[in-house]
Every structure is written in C-alpha cells, then in structure tokens.
Write a structure and sequence with these properties.
Helix content is 49%, strand content 17%. By secondary structure, it is α+β, with helices and mostly antiparallel strands. It has three domains: 7-114, Acyl-CoA dehydrogenase/oxidase, N-terminal domain (Butyryl-Coa Dehydrogenase, subunit A, domain 1, Orthogonal Bundle); 120-228, Butyryl-CoA Dehydrogenase, subunit A, domain 2 (Beta Barrel); 231-341, Up-down Bundle (Butyryl-CoA Dehydrogenase, subunit A, domain 3). The strands form three sheets. It has a four-stranded mixed β-sheet. The two termini are 39 Å apart. It binds flavin-adenine dinucleotide. Flavin-adenine dinucleotide (FAD) binds next to strand 1 and strand 3.
C-alpha cells in the first residue's frame, strides 16, 4: 500500500479543487441559506463525469477505484459537505444495481444514474428502525406481476430531487432474510413525499420522508433475489462508510486549515494566537487526528480496491473520521473565539 497519490490522482484532486473554488465556493452558501438543492452544481459535476465515479464505463461511469473516489469526496467536502453527501448517496443505488442488478436494470437505471441524467436515493431507514435496520416494517406483497409497497420511510437523502429510489421493504416475517430491495421510480402511482426535514446543517442536501400507499412496483424492479435485501443493504453501507469517512476527513481538514490561518492573523496580548502554546497544542492535536483518520479511510479503500475483507476497517474509518470531524470543528470554533459562533466569513 502506497501513501503517495498517483499522478492521475494528483491531477484529479487539483481539478476538483479548482472546480470547488470556481463553481461551488461562490454559490453554495446561498443554496444552504435557501435550503435549496444546487442542481446547477450537479449539472457541472455531470460535465466532469463525476456522477458515476465507481460505475464501470460500460454503463456510463468513470470506473474509478475506491481510493480515488474517496479522494474526490474528501476534496468536495472541504468546500460543500452537502454536495459530497448528495453525490455519495446517488452512488449507493449505482453500486447496488451494478453488483446485484440484472442486465436490464443496468441498461434502464444504472446508465442514467452514472451519466447524471437522473439522481438516485437509498431508502432503508424508517421512523421505528435506524441502527436496527432489519427492524423495518414497510410491507412488500407480491400480486401478479407487481409488488405492492405500503409504509413510510424517513431520512431519505436526495428525496424529491431523485428520480430513482432503491427501497428496502419486508417480503416475509424473517427478520433479516425477509427484506428485499426494489427500484422505485419517482411518479409511480402510490409513491409520494412526506415532510422535508429541517436539519442543523447540510441544508442544501434534502432529507425527506417517502410514503408508499398501495404503490405497485413491477416485479422486474426487484434487485437481486427476494429476501436478499438486508445483505444488499449491509454491503452497500460498508462502501458508504468509506465515503462518509472521506467526507468527514474533508470537513475536518478544512476546519483545521481555516483555524490555523486565523490563528496566524488574529492578534491578542500583542502576539498572534499561533504563538501561544495552548493554541499550538490544539492545532497539533487536530492535525494528528486528521492524519490517523486518513490512514484508516485509505486502508479501508485499499482493501476494497483489492477485493479483500474491508467491512471492519470501513466501520472503524467512519467512526474515527466522523469523531475527528466533531473534535476538530469544535476546536476550530474555540480558536475562532466569538467569531467562531458567527455565520460570517473572515
Ligand atoms: C443527514 C442524514 C442523512 C441520512 N440519509 C439517509 C439515507 O439517505 N437513507 C437512509 O436510509 N437513511 C439515512 N439516514 C438515517 C441514518 O442512517 C440513521 O440516522 C442511522 O441509521 C441511525 O439511526 P437512528 O437515527 O434511528 O438512531 P437510533 O438507531 O435510534 O440510535 C440512537 C442512538 O442510540 C445508539 N444505539 C442504537 N443502538 C444501540 C445499541 N445496540 N447499543 C448502544 N447504542 C445504540 C446509536 O448509536 C445512537 O447514538 C440519514 C440520517 C441523517 C442524519
């Protein structure tokens, strides 16, 4: 395993950085304030062929490895975590359809998702089941050539903005083997949207409830086998943990960089903040936590890229990187003092 980026990765990282500075940074705050999905940014991501980063070229994707995918998500997260989250979520159904879907599903849905013609969503959580995902209650009953869905899903990122939803529902009473995965399209009869959540942050990445009332989904939209849904969800979430780890890393890195620059320029007691040892120690702790988070994220991606077991390390990477993001941003707010509490650029 190399700790160095390849020339292609360096080039892509630089391209993303320039893109973020020119296309995302000038507009994202406005979208956040309006709580509006930044469609125009996604149009531009599509032009850069970034909507289907890990999907094979054959189905319209960029066929990047996971290490490079994580690098792009990290870079985007430095400028707009909400964009990175929505982008990684549209990747989840792609990963699932590519791994478990049949040729017809790949032709019909995967291509559109990977080419960014349509946006995807992943719907597992329900009001009564979060960590205990296998406790989901949305019912899926076979009727002729259709499956009838009834139930309410929640916390669906890209809700209402997406056209293709990967929905998990219960096909039998068996807790884990009774769950199946379905592709549901926006506009299908009996499929509607519930409330849009008000969140603490990530305002431009929508989070909605989905409501299914006798929604008839064609039987051909079953992904994998009936009863394979839980396995599919867990596999997809293993990959999702790497990208959320990478996103957390981007957030932490940006907070660290901003705090370090502020500490150099802010003067108190006749010195810059960066000359006080207490501040230096905070910055050193922040930098150290970011480095060990990066090692875990990179290792998880490396294992995945080499088809080695990566589930455990991906969970560690997500836990450590997201805890790091919390700790580093908290310390950054501290270094900014009162200004850290204000929503304003310095
Ligand atoms: C911004 C955002 C976007 C999201 N996007 C999606 C999406 O696109 N699709 C989707 O399906 N879901 C999505 N989710 C939902 C997310 O997956 C759930 O929030 C997560 O699974 C946790 O479930 P929960 O919120 O119900 O918490 P709970 O499961 O109720 O957990 C509450 C607390 O209890 C702890 N806990 C739970 N079980 C145990 C235990 N056995 N022992 C000790 N502690 C425990 C948890 O760690 C947590 O601290 C999103 C959530 C957010 C906030």
């Amino acid at each position: 395993m190399s700790f160095l980026l390849t020339e292609e990765q360096k080039h892509l990282q630089e391209t993303i950085r320039k893109f973020c500075i020119s296309e995302i940074a000038p507009r994202i705050q406005e979208y956040e304030e309006k709580e509006e999905f930044p469609r125009i940014i996604f149009e531009k991501l599509r032009e850069l062929s970034l909507m289907g980063m890990i999907t094979p070229e054959k189905y319209g994707g960029a066929d990047l490895d996971f290490s490079t995918y994580a690098l792009v998500i990290e870079e985007l997260s430095k400028y707009a975590l909400s964009v990175a989250v929505s982008l990684s979520v549209t990747g989840l159904p792609q990963n699932i359809i590519n791994t478990f879907g049949n040729e017809e599903q790949k032709e019909t849905y995967l291509k559109d998702l990977a080419m960014g013609k349509k946006l995807g969503a992943f719907s597992l959580s329900e009001p009564g089941s979060g960590s205990d995902a296998a406790g989901l209650k949305t019912k899926a009953e076979h009727k002729g050539a259709y499956t009838i869905l009834n139930g309410t899903k929640c916390f669906v990122t890209n809700g209402k903005e997406a056209e293709i939803y990967l929905v998990f529902a219960r096909t039998s009473e068996d807790k884990t083997k009774g769950i199946s995965a379905f592709i549901v399209e926006k506009g299908m009869k009996g499929f509607s949207f519930g409330k849009k959540e008000k969140k603490m942050a990530l305002q431009s990445s929508p989070t909605l409830e989905l409501i299914f009332k006798d929604c008839a989904v064609p039987e051909k939209n079953l992904v994998g086998k009936s009863g394979q849904g839980f396995q599919i969800a867990m596999q997809a979430l293993d990959c999702g943990r790497i990208t959320i780890g990478a996103a957390s890393l981007g957030l932490a890195t940006r907070a660290f960089e901003e705090a370090r620059e502020y500490a150099k320029t802010r003067t108190q007691f006749g010195k810059s903040l960066s000359q006080f040892q207490a501040i230096q120690m905070m910055l050193a702790d922040m930098a150290t936590a970011i480095e060990y988070s990066r090692l875990l994220v990179q290792k998880a991606a490396f294992l995945k890229d080499h088809s080695l077991p990566f589930s455990k390390i991906a969970s560690m990477a997500k836990t450590v990187a997201s805890d790091t993001a919390m700790q580093v941003t908290t310390k950054a707010v501290q270094i900014f003092g009162g200004n850290g509490y204000l929503q304003r650029k310095f």
